Amino acid sequence: MKILLVLERANHDTQQLKGLLDEHGYRVSSLRECCQSVANETQLLDQDFKSLLDPKPVGSFRSSLEGRLLSINRAGAEIHGYETPEEMIEEVNRVGLAKALYFHVERRQELVRQALENDDWQLFEEPFRRRDGSLVHCLFHLRAVRDAAGLPVELEGFVEDISARKAVERALQFTQFTIDKTTDQAFWMTEDHRFFYVNEAACRSLGYSREELMTLTLLDIDPDITTECLDAGWQRLRRQGSSILESRHRTRDGRIYPVEIRANFVVFEGREYNCAFATDISERKKTEERVKASLLEKEVLLREIHHRVKNNLQVVSSLLYLQSQKLADPELKNHFLESQSRICSMALAHEQLYQSKNLSEVSLKSYVENLVDQLRQVFQVTGQRIDCRTEIDNVALDIAKVVPCGLLITELLSNAYRHAFADGRNGAIRIAIEEQEGKLLLTVADDGIGLPAEFDYRQTSTLGMQLVRALVNQLNGIIEVENKRGTLFRVTFAP
Q1: What is the spatial distance between Cα 182 and Cα 262, in angstroms, rounded to a whole number?
Q2: In this structure, is residue 314 part of a structural domain?
Q3: Which residue from 125, 186, 253, 282 has the least number of CB within 10 angstroms?
Q4: Are residues 195 and 336 in the same domain?
Q5: Is this prediction's pTM over 0.70?
Q6: Are 377 and 418 in contact (CB under 8 A)?
Q7: Where are the strands (E) in 95-151, listed by range?
């Protein structure tokens, strides 16, 4: 748009001239109309400028060289905790700009001096006071406003609240300081297994400088790992979030030492990292080896003890057998055989124990089956067919319970052989041990002639039944007796 100013009362026909110019695309106005148009446009521009600055989170201000606040936008006032710019200007100028806003009052003089000595913007990070006395950390731009002669007349600047950023920086600095000073080796690794960060402990342990380590990958310091293992481990860590494992590290001079690694999956600034801490466990491994060697030595000694106990019991059993062969009284001979069987059951327990992998427990299934085979050979009468079956759950018992359990089976089984089929009949005996609701149920049942009607196991004075009651008490068990279609003894006890 073109504007031509035409002075009123000039010596020419203004209307004729206006018409002529209009025909050529010009607009003709009076001086009054032109000034009003410029004023309107200036007002619009000023409103646009204010609307451009005020909504921004950056504060803009002007101040005198002496320290009076001349102007500030709304964002600047809000940064310092004031509701309006006018309120801030009034209160700051009443107290004094340096005292009202600066955490270090004398600092303003230094900032002003730097602004006056330089023509371009000066950038500072400063803590300022808010209206309520709290601190706000700001990014501070400042420069001098100069007149036509180049002399400074005012100061202008921008201020931005960076408190949140400074808090994050302090947290990161503290975290880095803490990690850097820890005795554990710290490694931050990227997905391609390169080191993003290593602490001082890692450098000392591996014998590299930090700059050297930052050019390496995990493949360079772990002698046992492959790229495939690393990729699989990264995916597993991404799913689980953290993991603990043992590995080995190789130093710069080739020494290899064991480490325990605690790995954590971390996402930082949009990137994925493995933040791992490694602890040198060389001393722990040496201690473990010493403990293992000591345990192995004790295990060998215990096995030898059980072996000798078993041999001694077998010698006693053999002596009893030899002595029984010189006896003519059948009843007395049976007593010797019963004693021999009891000793054999104890010897068998010690034999099973020193042959087992675990010296504290015996496999009940293997022990009872071997025990029943031995007792069958002792008590089976030639020409008589007695089917002796075992149904034993695969349960392990310690030696303190295996011996009384074996003696109890010996007593009940020998009684069944000698009394249930005394008339020479054939039959069957069933020995079962099953686990039920945390308890063990021992059953010895036969289909023989059964017990006498007046028999009461609680009152009988025979040595065999006295032993049965004593052994049940030793197991802290409960015994039940049934006399239907033979005899059944049921003992329940805790394993």
Answers
A1: 14
A2: yes
A3: 253
A4: no
A5: no
A6: no
A7: 122-129, 135-146
